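From the methods appendix. Each design record in this collection lists the tokenized structure first, followed by the designed amino acid sequence. Records were kept in a plain field format so they could be parsed without special tools. The example shown here is representative of the layout used throughout.

RECORD:
FOLD TOKENS (216 positions):
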């Protein structure tokens, strides 16, 4: 907000499930999350109204996808599966092979028993495993990535506000992080398909007042 951004995208599913409502209530700028646009896309995809979700434990525990989807259509059944072991493997660059397949089979088996026809990849890491996941669920199950859904929603919001870019030149990328974990730059470059040259750590302090409120 201090950098005068014109929109905010909460691109992490776990962060969306935990923080979207708070952000929406406290800031006036356009805010797009990863979950609600994905829920809208799922309605256009499913044929038998049986949706599977693989996500982090935090996202599954929040029931964010279930709430968002059933709010749009009460007749849709949503089955969620937490996959805590996937993120560490993706961050280590292990994207295929027998170990990954064994883990995915274990996570996907309960969902396939529910006869889902659509599977939400409810974590930004999971599209890196898309090829293996599609192989295991078969061609009849449609995979939905939350990232394209969020991008399309962002485009829609900016167009409605008249804030889309008119310049044809490519924009620049600046990366600000609250912490710089091991391999972050390499992993980020792998995800975005371009090098991360301007990564800066932002230091911040949280102060809690006597009445329990906090400020940044």
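DESIGN:
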């Amino acid at each position: 907000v201090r950098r005068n951004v014109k929109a905010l995208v909460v691109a992490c599913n776990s962060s969306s499930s935990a923080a979207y409502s708070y952000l929406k209530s406290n800031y006036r700028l356009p805010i797009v999350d990863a979950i609600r646009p994905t829920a809208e896309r799922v309605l256009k995809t499913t044929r038998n109204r049986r949706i599977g979700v693989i996500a982090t434990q935090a996202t599954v525990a929040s029931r964010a996808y279930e709430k968002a989807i059933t709010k749009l259509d009460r007749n849709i059944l949503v089955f969620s599966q937490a996959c805590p072991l996937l993120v560490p493997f993706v961050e280590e660059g292990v994207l295929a092979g027998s170990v990954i397949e064994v883990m995915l089979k274990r996570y996907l088996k309960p969902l396939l028993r529910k006869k889902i026809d659509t599977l939400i990849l409810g974590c930004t890491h999971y599209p890196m495993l898309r090829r293996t996941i599609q192989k295991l669920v078969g061609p009849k199950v449609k995979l939905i990535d939350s990232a394209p859904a969020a991008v399309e929603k962002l485009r829609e919001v900016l167009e409605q506000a008249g804030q889309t870019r008119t310049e044809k030149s490519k924009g620049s990328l600046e990366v600000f992080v609250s912490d710089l974990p091991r391999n972050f730059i390499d992993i980020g470059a792998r995800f975005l398909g371009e090098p991360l040259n301007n990564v800066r750590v932002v230091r911040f302090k949280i102060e809690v007042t006597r009445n329990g409120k906090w400020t940044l």
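APPENDIX NOTE: The chain has a mean pLDDT of 90.
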